[in-house]
Design a protein that fits this description.
One of its GO terms (molecular function) is calcium-dependent phospholipid binding. InterPro entries: Annexin_sf. This protein is an all-alpha fold and about 100 residues long. Helices cover about 80% and strands about 0% of the residues. The protein has 5 helices and no strands.
Amino acid sequence: MEIYGEDLINCLRMRTTQLAKSEGNELGESSSAAAGSALALWMLDPVERDAVVAREALDQKSEITNFRALVEMFVGRKSSHVVLIKQVYQVSSLRENVKLFTR
């Protein structure tokens, strides 16, 4: 079985959460989850990684929008890279909406 992109990220996050829960240690849980998330992001293409970071920065479930991540991303990247980030973000957003409304 081969998995890529967001499926791989979700799989790694679920696995690190399961491992942390089995350890029963809150500190272990946060460090394991952070290590798993960092590894998952590192494995992505830069454009996909930036789209994931943008999605997490704009996450409506959290109360605070991470403007620092967004500013760093859009100021520090070339305009062509920003266009690609927007495209990947929109495709992943569309995929999530389809999953949400077809359940």
